[in-house]
Every structure is written in C-alpha cells, then in structure tokens.
Write a structure and sequence with these properties.
Number of strands: 10
CATH superfamily: Aldolase class I
Number of domains: 1
Structural class: alpha/beta
Oligomer: single chain
Strand content: 15-25%
Helix content: 25-40%
Number of helices: 9
Strand order of the largest sheet: 2-3-5-6-7-8-9-10
C-alpha cells in the first residue's frame, strides 16, 4: 500500500513561504548527488541517517496545515537534498498528497535521470529548478558536477509542458558577476521564460557544518547587500528578465 511506503525524511518544515506559492509544508529527503559549496542542508549529504517515516505519517503532518493552504493557494513541497533520488518513494508521497487535493511542488537540482522526472511529472504542479552557475567548469568546481544534466532536465520538463520556476542561489563573488548574469538571462530567454527567483546566500547553515564536522568552503563570504541585490535585479531587468527575491 502507498501509505506504508517509507521515506528518508530528515526534516519537515511548516509555514514556509519561499518554497512555492502560498503557505506550504516542505518535506526534506536525505541524499544528494551534488556538494554545493553553499548548501544550506548538509545533513542531507549522507544517506541512512534519517529515521524512515511512512507516507501516511508524513501526509498526516502535512494536512495539519490544510486550512492555510486553502486560503493562500499553498500546499506541499518536496525538497532535499535531491528528493528525486528516491523517485518511487517520491511518487508514493506525491500521489497521496494529490489524493487529498493538495498543490504539490518539487525542488530538484535537475541532476537526476529522465526516468525520475518522468515518474513524477504527472503528480507535480510546480518544479523549482536552480541555476547555480552557467560555466560548466565553474559549476563542477562549486558543486562537484557539471551543469549539462541540469540543462537537459530543464529542457525535458519544459518540452512536456511542466510548470517550471527557475531560481538562482546568489552568492557574492561566486555567481553574481555580469558575465554569469548575462548567461543566465540568455538561457531563460532561450526557453521562452521571463523570470527567475533570486535566493540570497546566508550564513545560518554554518552551524550545521560545524556540528557535522564538515568544512564550510564559503565561511568567509557575507550575504549580498541590498545594493548588490538591486544591481543583480537591474542587470537582469535590462535583459528582459524579471527577478524576484526569494528569502
């Protein structure tokens, strides 16, 4: 039975407002193919640490805030790590959520097989995909993998009519230069899209790295200032791309 399927959930966050439309509950699954230098959830790196929870247990918690979803247009977001590493478990959770009429979103790096995207596409109302860096070499340096799979997944989803929201984690001195911003704008326009969410880098994750005994590569980087954010949004606007600040 779907309700008995177990998921490697390492966190459930309620009343989220930056993980899709409206007020949402975000379910985080462990495991990730990337090691982004700014990752906010390093506890997702290692699989086998989270105590598995059943789909029924997770959806019951999600439904506790159903009244908020109904008045705000919110719902459930599946995140990680990379939630589509667990495609069949994700299918079970999404199917159960849809059976209760919930709006569903998935935050994915795109670094997953097409088969994983195909497994969930009919159950997902919105995919959120990050553009971390446009240079393949720099992307690999920052995340441990190139960006070809990211771009292929994005194209695959759009070609099949999926609703996709692009986002960009903005890290000062890492991916906020004009050349990268212009490349981001070109990619967005090439896909017939016109907007992107900017997720400003912040430092609250550093305590997690210390607790896990991990090295935070960007520990000396400060969050972008309001002026820096304005420069980025202005640069993108000049190239026909609307940028909103998420977070």
């Amino acid at each position: 039975m779907i309700a008995a399927v177990r998921l490697p959930v390492f966190d459930v966050q309620r009343c989220c407002v930056h993980d899709g439309p409206g007020i949402r509950t975000t379910v985080f699954l462990e495991g990730c193919p990337l090691r982004c230098a700014w990752c906010q959830n390093p506890e997702a790196f290692r699989e086998g640490r989270a105590a598995p929870r059943t789909v029924a247990e997770v959806v019951a918690e999600v439904l506790e805030d159903r009244a908020y979803y109904e008045v705000s247009g919110g719902g459930m977001t599946l995140s990680g790590g990379e939630p589509l590493l667990h495609a069949q478990a994700a299918v079970a959770l999404l199917r159960e959520a849809k059976s209760h009429g919930l709006h569903t979103a998935v935050q994915t790096s795109g670094v997953v097989p097409e088969s994983s995207l195909a497994a969930v596409i009919g159950l997902v109302d919105l995919f959120q995909v990050d553009l971390k860096h446009m240079s393949p070499e720099r992307h690999r340096e920052l995340t441990g993998a190139g960006n070809d799979r990211v771009h292929a997944s994005l194209a695959w989803l759009l070609a099949r009519g999926a609703a996709v929201e692009l986002r960009m984690p903005l890290v000062p001195g890492v991916n906020d230069d004009d050349a990268n911003l212009d490349a981001v704008a070109r990619l967005i326009a090439d896909h017939g899209l016109r907007e992107i969410g900017i997720v400003p880098y912040q430092r609250m994750y550093l305590a997690k790295y210390a607790a896990l005994g991990l090295e935070a590569r960007l520990r000396g980087v400060d969050p972008p200032s309001p002026a820096a954010l304005a420069r980025v949004t202005d640069r993108l606007a000049q190239r026909g791309i609307s940028a909103r600040i998420d977070g």
